[in-house]
Design goal:
single chain, about 270 residues, alpha/beta, Rossmann fold, 2 domains, 4-stranded antiparallel β-sheet, 11 helices, about 40% helix
């Protein structure tokens, strides 16, 4: 059995009395790809926001390699080795692919401002090392033909691949993937699936995946957690999840007694936190 890397215990999150997550418990083991699925408004992205420190949960706790997140800020959590790929592309469109990837290594830069300004000694050595690492990512993600092009000029699928590369540039031990294939065509989805699988198999990176494309999830995931209206309704291997009656009911919209449908709930949450 793989060693536990991330553990979520009795996590509760609410905004102005609206419960978004209720008593969520989840274990993610080292090297595992753990998918979190559920209808729109179920609380999936909110869960990732709690892990990355963007949302402050009211009770429960999250432990990463036995360190509690309860009092940590987002930058402190990132320093522990947690990276994230957001649903919407968060790149600097006027900068090149190489420069965007270099920005992903900011947490690993140790030289001070003065040393960096004069670009001598240790600073020069580190710059060379960072560029070598970035070139490795370019090759790994097959971005050689785009490396010096402005990101904004690239096709959508390539931009998503660059976004993945920037997350990998920080050498994360845990990578949070929030709908990495949203908006992609079939070929782009197949490419992303291949690269995500390579990240797991070659780099050994632990991943938490949120995705609505069930064939994508079932092909890649080792474990799947299903949440609906903020509550965990099932957990297990992909084959178990596909046959679980609670999961089927969740996707048919009959599992919850809430007066909100999933779309209304998602809209209300967004209105409260905006």
């Amino acid at each position: 059995m793989s060693k536990i890397q991330l553990q979520i215990q009795n996590l509760n999150l609410s905004f102005r009395g609206l419960h978004v997550l209720r008593n969520i418990n989840m274990v993610v083991r080292r090297g595992e790809l753990h998918a979190v699925i559920g209808p729109n408004g179920a609380g999936k992205s909110s869960l990732l926001n709690c892990i990355s420190g963007l949302y402050k949960f009211q009770s429960g706790d999250i432990y990463f390699q036995n360190q509690s997140f309860r009092r940590k800020k987002p930058h402190q959590i990132a320093e522990l080795g947690i990276g994230r790929l957001f649903q919407n592309i968060e790149l600097f469109k006027n900068m090149t692919v190489i420069d965007n990837l270099l920005l992903g290594r900011h947490r690993l830069i140790k030289s001070g401002v003065l040393a960096s300004a004069f670009y001598v000694g240790k600073s020069m050595k580190q710059e060379i090392e960072h560029r070598e690492k970035v070139e490795e990512i370019v090759e790994f993600l097959e971005l050689e033909n785009y490396r010096m092009k402005a990101v904004g000029s690239l096709p959508y699928g390539i931009q998503k691949r660059v976004d993945l590369g920037r997350a990998l540039a920080g050498e994360p031990e845990l990578l949070l993937l929030d709908e990495p294939i949203a908006g992609m065509n079939v070929d782009e989805k197949e490419d992303m699936a291949r690269f995500i699988n390579e990240v797991r198999m070659t780099l050994g990176t632990t991943m938490i995946l949120i995705e609505h494309d069930m064939s994508f999830v079932m092909d890649l995931a080792d474990q799947v957690t299903v949440i609906d209206f903020g509550e965990k309704v099932a957990e297990g291997e992909p084959e178990e999840i596909q046959e679980n009656p609670n999961v089927i009911r969740a996707y048919l919209g009959s599992i919850s007694n809430s007066k909100f449908d999933s779309g209304q709930r998602e809209a209300e949450i967004n209105e409260i936190i905006s």
